Each structure stands twice: as structure tokens, then as C-alpha cells.
């Protein structure tokens, strides 16, 4: 995976022509009472890119944080995501996010997962069947959701559209009907899950990859990795700085989440990794460290990973599997 040694770019260009800052503040699991202050601090510190979603249930506070920062809306790249229970009401979901955020457009709107969940009396957002499994609609064509996303562009309420959590088979299927190529595919990316093949597929079609969980998320299994720490020591920076710098240098937007002012500041400081560092980081998963940290229960039989119900039950019972959705 050859990489030219170069300073990580401060921004990328989407296939729409718009510029997107290469580091964005993540807002998932930023608790109520924390996220507004984090967003304000980040914008004052120089961030110009915020990544949110309806399912994070904190968009109102994200909007408050934006307004409190004094940074003009037009200077901020703002992303939200269509939640799984809204595949049949795409514009309604967008309108709910716009109202919560208190803005009249998004710079980027993503389909959060290629999965439709059917809301029922158990929940509007995370419905389950009587047996406890997620209420997945297995027959909903994603081409229909994407067509509704394409139609949003004409409303002016979104400047660009994209997808999230789409693997190659899902993208190949969508490619048969899309009239607008997704601007972005936001997926889990870090050295334990580099998704080189998916990145090559997206690069070829001008789809920019965005790295979520770049630090390995809460209770990260990455930060203590010896190879990562050796690279950090070599450059006299933290392992987090290496993980964040790695993504823009390989050509991906990076979305670290923090609610700590000091870490928000630190996460904006990128370094230039050398060829050897990049090779090490690129090769870690192939050496046996492959691991996903975000494995939702609606994904086990939908081709996102190799989990089967018995394995999930076993892992949950033994504390070895983190239930994220
Ligand atoms: N599209 C999707 O399906 C999807 C899924 C997951 C995530 N995302 C997006 O990607 C963003 C990032 O993912 P994530 O929030 O799961 O995980 P992450 O950014 O990989 O990690 C966040 C964790 O790392 C800690 N942290 C932050 N900066 C640090 C530093 N410099 N040193 C050590 N620890 C640090 C944070 O704690 P503190 O807050 O206390 O600093 C938090 O516990 C999300 O917030 C969300 O916007 C999207």
C-alpha cells in the first residue's frame, strides 16, 4: 500500500466540488450536558466540521453549541444521517434533524446504515421483534432510499449526499441504479480495520472515505497496542495523534470524538508519518489484529461481519462482545 510521505491535507474535495475539512468532531455518545460545550470549544479551537446523526439524540445541543461559538453557519461543514427507521420517510428525517440543529441546510446527509428497521410499539428508533431481535425489513430496496436521497438535492436542504456502513456488495448493488454517485462512504476505519479493498473501490469512483471510530471508540483496544505506541514514541506524540494523522494521510476524512477540551485541541494537531509508519499501520490487521469495535446487532446476518446468533449470545454472555445498537 504505497503512500507518498506528505503532510496530511487540511481538507479534501468532494465529488460535488465542495471542500470538506479533513478532521471533523464526532458527536456520538457525547452525553447531554457535554456535547454543546464540546462543539463550542471545538469551533473556537478551529474545527470547522461536525459529524452528527439523528440517532445520537443530541442534535439540539449540537445546534446550541454551534450558535454559542459565534462561528457563522456558512463556515461550518455539518453532517447528519438518515436513521434506519426513516428509509420510507427520508425528507421527514432530514427535516427533524434540521429543526433540532436549528439550521436550514446540511453540507452532507448520509444513509446511516443500509438497513431498514420497522418502527413498532417497542421503539420508534430501535424496534425489536417479540424474540428480542432487531425489527429489520429484509425486503426494502436500498435503491428506493437512495432515490429519495437524490431528490433531496433539488430542495437545497442538503449540499451533498452519501452513505455510511456500506460494504462493496451493497455499493455494487446501488451502483446499478444510482444517478448521483455518493460523495462519501463513512465507515469504521483504524489500523485494526483498515478496509483497504473498500477504500480502493471507493477511490476508483470518486467516493471519499470517512473514518469513524478512528481511535477505536470507547475503551479502545488500539491505544495500548505496542506497534502503535512505538510509532507514537518515535514522534514524541500520543497514540491518538498517530491514529488521527494516519487517516488524512491515507486519503480519508477522520472523525475523532471527544468532550474533553484538552483532547479536542490535541486531536486537531496532525503529524506527518513516514513511509515505514504508514506501512506498519496499514499492515497491522493483516498480521492478526483485525477487529471491529462497532458491531450492531442488526448487522450479524446482513453481511457486515461474520457473527451468527449463537456466537453473539455467547459473546454477550461472556462480556466479549460490545452491543452498540
Ligand atoms: N456512521 C456510523 O455508523 C458511525 C458509527 C460510530 C461513530 N461514528 C462517528 O464517528 C465518531 C467517532 O467515533 P467514536 O466516537 O465511536 O470513537 P472515537 O472517536 O474513535 O473514540 C472516542 C473515545 O476516545 C476518547 N478520546 C478522544 N480523544 C482522545 C485522545 N486524544 N486520547 C485518548 N482518548 C481520546 C473519547 O473520550 P473523551 O470524549 O472523554 O475524550 C472517547 O471515549 C462518532 O462520534 C460519530 O460522529 C459514526
From TrEMBL:
The active site lies at: 56 (proton donor)
Q: Which GO terms describe its molecular function?
A: oxidoreductase activity, acting on the CH-OH group of donors, NAD or NADP as acceptor
Name the UniProt key words of this record, in alphabetical order.
Oxidoreductase
User: Which of this chain's residues are annotated to bind substrate?
Assistant: 112
Question: Looking at the record's lineage, which domain of life comes first?
Answer: Eukaryota
What is the phylogenetic placement of the source species in the record?
Answer: Eukaryota, Fungi, Dikarya, Basidiomycota, Pucciniomycotina
What InterPro entries does the annotation carry? AKR, Aldo/ket_reductase_CS, NAD(P)_OxRdtase_dom_sf, NADP_OxRdtase_dom
Q: What is this protein called?
A: Aldo/keto reductase family protein
Residue ranges constituting the NADP-dependent oxidoreductase domain according to the UniProt record: 23-284
Q: Which organism is the protein's source?
A: Rhodotorula diobovata
Positions bearing the site annotation: Lowers pKa of active site Tyr: 81
Q: Which Gene3D superfamilies match?
A: NADP-dependent oxidoreductase domain
- Pfam families with a match to the protein in the record: Aldo_ket_red (PF00248)
Q: Which PROSITE patterns match?
A: ALDOKETO_REDUCTASE_1, ALDOKETO_REDUCTASE_3
